[in-house]
Amino acid sequence: MSPQKRVKDSKAQKRTSQDSDSYKTNLLALKEEDLNDSKCSLKQGQNDPVKDYGHADDEAEDALKRAVRYFEKGPVETSRSRDKTLEKHLKTVENVAWKSGLAPEGIDILLNVALSGKFGNVVNTRILKCMIPTTLISEDSVVKAVSWLCVGKCSGSTKVLFYRWLVAMFDFIDHKEQINLLYGLFFASLEDDALCPYVCHLLYLLTRKENVKPFRVRKLLGLQAKMGMQPHLQALLSLYKFFAPTLISVSLPARKKIYFRNSENLWETALLAVRQRIQGPPPEPVKLMLGPANVHPVKRKWNSYSVIPMLNSSSCSKECGKKGMALSDYLRSNGSFPLEQLKSFPQLLKNIHCLELPSQMGAVLNNSLLLHYINVVKDESILLRLYHWLSQTLQEECIWYKVNDYEHGKEFANLLDTIIRAEYFLQEGFYSCETFLYKSLPLWDGLCCRSQFLQLVSWIPFSSFSEVKPLLFDHLAQLFFISTIYFKCSVLQSLKELLQNWLLWLSTDIHMKPVMDSPLDTTLGGSVNTVSELIDYIGWLSTTAMRLESNNTFLLHFILDFYEKVCDIYINYKLPLVVLFPPGIFYPALLSLDSSILNQLCYIMDRYRKNLTAAKKNELVQKTKSEFNFSTKTYKEFNHYLTVMVGCLWTSKPFQKGLYIDHEVIEKAGVADYKSSLNLVHHPALLSYTVSFLLQEWPEERRVNMSSVRGKKWNWYLDYLFSEGLQGLKLFIRSSIHRSSTPLTREHKPHHQH
Amino acid sequence: MDPYDTPESTPRHGASSRLKDYFIGATPLRKRLESVRKQASFVPTPPRRKIPQCSQLQEDNDPQKFAFLLHKQWTLYSLTPLYKFSYTNLKEYSRLLSAFIAAEKQKGLAVEVGEDFNIKVTFSTLLGMKGTQRDPEAFLVQILSKSQLPSENRGQKVLWTGWFCCVFGDSLLETVPEDFTCVPLFLANGAETNTAIVGTWFQKTFDCHFSSLAINAFNLSWMAAMWTACKMDQYMATTEFLWSVPCSPQSLDISYAIHPEDAKALWDSVHKTPGEVTQEEVDLFMDCLYSHFHRHFKIHLSATRLVRVSTSVASAHTDGKIKILCHKYLIGVLAYLTELAIFQID
């Protein structure tokens, strides 16, 4: 029980170990002073942040030492001078305490003084009020103080104040093992009506599972019967219920009451100061929880306060499931880690083998740590519990099932948002959401919760396309065709995300190959087929949409965004798949009036080229005839597109093959020389660039002569275009067109000719 | 009784070509997904069902055993599988549930488990209330009021009754692992506040989910046909249909009562396949009733909504309320309700 006996294990202890070293010196000095009464000049350790005041500080220290020694000795002088000295020393202690806190040794001594009844009640009160630690309070001091309570030398009000102080300072006590041993003593103090609220609060902080005993439950219930529904009793009882659901049942009112009011805390400002001394300035609160605060004002059926159940690790069903488990066994089994204490990722890692699971699995949606947990856990029943709950909840909350019930619209959207957040967090879709979509998509009006709904679509877990198509995509297509262009764009956007999710999933799974004992080739083939079917389907949707929206540029942007993902599958996801865009997308993009579309097209063509080249190279290296050799059709198609593009942008020989335009039509249009009028200079999307270029370079020219852009000027023009941000074009020209020193109309033959 | 007699359901894509199957494989979750897909892609209800017959299992039992379940109105709920429910712990559940109810009734006041309240909860199994041996045992929960006077110990009043059952629930049982108990059908009689409290306790304790089970007009027509088809020794009630016409200020109800023997005669005239009821037969049966009514009152009942069907076997309301009258066909009625409940929780 000596103050020097310390176990240096806790973090806080380490942090302040240097401080306590200096306290030791301090105390040593104090004793020395006792002996020869000489002025002590020992300086405080340098690490003490508040003691850096130089000489004035030294004086204050000395004064404090004298004061402490005075109280320790007790009153000896005559009453007159005594009052004066007492007041002086009290003031000293108060000043130091409120300014920088007291060392554990100081608190130890003064606490003894206050509770031993050496001085009067007023003095005791004042001493107790300033028992503010610099950083920590030694457990032993508390134990000693409690032993004074039993002697009966202090008044009731002092006892009350002591308990209030103990509750307030609870976090700063260095250990609680021995204090917990006094549990029974504290519990007995509940009998005292004046003490009861504060003792309850202390027990609330102190109670562990092993403290909950049937006889205590009965005692508390007895008190409740005597005093009625008191918030402090309620708090302790509900804590008991949490630890021992088979012993006690309590149902708390909907709105959570504040059990222990903060305003009763006399030391609020002092506590803040102590915390700052320990941790430095308060850090930003760590945002662990995914979900919004549980605010659900709507009174719901079956008295659940929110759609998503609260996190409760009721071990009741689990324990009851074990046949013949005695109550005492149950109370002793504290091997598992209660959920409510799970606050950080390291804690999760440490306790992952013995984590108590929530009684209602749906609660994991609001807790990112538990989402981590269900992500790695192999237990199928956990997923199944979540599946059942989520399917039913979605069905029940879905507002377009309930005719004319749009009241819950916002709540439903919130639920969907929470689910989507969780899916995003896990990077994985829930099966229940997929089945929910099967049922609800055919009934969806395309408006209600649109953004959430389309996001759910993008998180459909990977599965065979042909199987999912009639259940989902066909219904979505119907809405797609009859809705506005904005809806079309959002659908394409979410389908792009779906593709991305599937690709990520596939590409990570391929690397788990060794785990599986079946031949991979067929399965991978099937998966790749499914992805290619999805891309073809979206291609079909896009082509039709382009026709319906008369080649709208805005829409085309979204479509090309999608193909930007598609063209890079081979390189980015290491999947043997290259799917080209359909002509219905390629030609409108090539002939678009918008330069950014043309630029995007060039970029995509360049990426297609790089992917196909990489695939070709791999094939040559591996020389294995796998089923993933790209058909020559893909290369032919690409080469055709490439030829057309080069013809339209570079060689002014557009549509050499495969396109016949009636001469009459051309004459009517007045572009008889159409053949030479389509290249980088004359392309409708780039015309404005040509004009700006000419005006900028030759401002004195009166007439803008477009056909003058050739030879050297052509090169300058190219640089101009690149400098204007047409990076896709730059990449395309760099890779697909080999320019000789005389750069006009030298077409380079595409690489891949079969 | 084979609830999912879908000829189209060939094994899906044989040796599955999906990577995912290697990870999830034929797991319960996967199975559930498959079964939902099956349902979503084909006609939601099977085109044919067997006419309810007295089941072997039930005949072994004392006919009076389940008499207290008859002639009472039950509110129907569907229920997802119970996690870690154990038939050996029924006594413990009684203790916990009664404490829970006591605590709920006096919100905020803690109560000791096992304390003497003025109510008592009992859990008991309803042995034999099942379709196949695989079906889990049905069980009954009752809230009884305890009389204050010790002399009246005998006269415990039943405040609320609820029971859980699964009759021919194979399609669900196949897809759920051992940890779960499948009793997809829950029937309650008594104050709704009590149903809510008991339901909440079950949801919290066994991580399950209750939803009220409404019966749509389509399924009501099926009930009408199947129950009319049942052979009865003696008819106890008239066959009655109730249609609702939505109009303001108050909706109009049309009641249509037929002598049960006439209804049976009509059924026999449309019925072809022995022992079975098909969708065509159901449609034809209802169409005959419609045209008969139209001939007399010039009202097209097909344009209104069927809300209630009563026969000598049972009566059902679209709100999800049922009253079973005939002991003989109890299992048959429950089998169809189980099927509807399973469909809802899929």
Describe this structure in words.
The complex is a heterodimer of chains A (754) and B (346). With 754 residues, chain A is an all-alpha fold. Chain A has 34 helices and one strand. In chain A, helix 19 runs parallel beside helix 21 and helix 20 (409-426) packs parallel to helix 22. By secondary structure, chain B is α+β, with helices and mostly antiparallel strands. In chain B, helix 4 (90-105) packs across helix 6. Chain B is globular. Classes of the chains: A mainly alpha (754), B alpha+beta (346). At the A-B interface, helix 12, helix 13, strand 1, helix 15 and helix 19 of A face helix 1, helix 2, helix 4, strand 4 and helix 6 of B.
User: In angstroms, what separates the terminal alpha carbons of chain B?
Assistant: 19 Å
Mean pLDDT of chain A: 77
What fraction of residues of chain B sit in β-strands?
A: 15-25%
- In DSSP terms, counting alpha (H) and pi (I) runs of 4 or more, how many helices of chain A? 34
For the sheet with most strands of chain B, the description reads:
11 strands, antiparallel
Weakly predicted, low-confidence segments of chain B: 1-25
Roughly how many Å is the radius of gyration of chain B? 22 Å
Q: Roughly how many Å is the radius of gyration of chain A?
A: 39 Å
Count of DSSP E strands of chain A?
A: 1
Low-confidence stretches of chain A: 1-53, 282-300, 316-333, 513-522, 741-754
Largest chain-chain contact?
A-B, 75 and 61 residues
Global shape of chain A: elongated
Could you estimate the helical fraction of the residues of chain A in percent? 55-70%
The dominant shape of chain B is globular
Structural class of chain A: mainly alpha
Query: Which structural class do you get from the secondary structure elements of chain B?
Result: alpha+beta
Number of helices of chain B: 10
Quaternary state reads heterodimer
Mean pLDDT reading of chain B? 83
